[in-house]
Amino acid sequence: LVEMIPELPEGTLFCTMRAPNGVLKEVVISKGHLNYLPIQGQQGLAAGYKWASDGPGRVLVVYDFHMMINNPGAWGALIEITPFLRAPKNAGINDPASMVVFVSPLWDLSPQNPLQGVMPILTLPLPTRDSLKSIAEGLAPLNEGAEGVADSLCGLTADAAEQAAAECLAANGGQWNTEHLRQSRRQVLLDHGLHILTPVKWDAVAGLGGWKNVVQKRVIPFIRHPKLAIRCILCTGLPGLGKTYGARGLADILGTDCIELDLEILKSSGGGIVGQAGAALNRALDCLDSFGREANIIVLLDELEKVASEGLDAGTSSGMHSRLLRWLQNIKENSQILVIGTVNEGGKLSSALENRFQLKFWYDLPTTSEREGVAR
What we know:
Strand order of the largest sheet: 6-8-9-10-7-11
Structural class: alpha/beta
């Protein structure tokens, strides 16, 4: 908002408040600094809306409205006040309208919320890789570990990254520890209903010689190359041959986490209701996108045939199937996520979904030497 100020009409007034009953504070800009002056006797959303609609060119900034966005009383009051913001009470013909800006960490509008598609939602980007490096460098020299530190912080907000970095240094005698840093990322993933699989040391992965050979030649060397990288791998074979195990091992050699996106759980979390199941999937995918925008992360879609089929469950699976198709297409264009889908032998996928995977790998029974490796 501060960056917007030079572009706004002269005389624009700002006020801030916290929903639902915070004190209204006038924002005074002086010598490049913002000062917040409480307005005596002005408190609550009703007072804030009245202040915004009383005069032209006013901007009310409301924090934490996401906690009540799906309350009918909250959205009803907002819909009622909108015409008076467009044409404030004391505005002349050429005077600017007023505006209410809601600032929150997330938005989750319910399907029945009439603000869907009416209230524009602008998602601010997370810090870039270079920004995260600068934050970490401000606490301690990165030296040769710069890329590992950046990988471990990608997906966090600036505040969360600084906090995670400070905690890491305090717990490790002032030294960087990427495993410690990833704990903060993992907590965010868990909060979005995603499951983090226990890592497996790559050198300890036995019985998967074919898999290791393919990823070492065709995947790992080009993992950060935007044009050559393989982003989606479909693994097929009998249950118990190590498809999930191979994904966990690959996460180890890439120095990242393996996240299981359990479509069956997301589907059941919506109670079989199309909108709710879709919203749960959208939240999970948005979270994964934020973490994989500038750093590698492995996403496992296990037993993909169970849910990703068209026309099942009165549209629930069909809706998730469509959303999954769009997401997989975007991954190939602008992400560093590596998706590994698994299908048991005989599992059926739609042709559209199967074609989203650039590499297909068949897990066969282990050879004699591979069985010896497992035994050792």
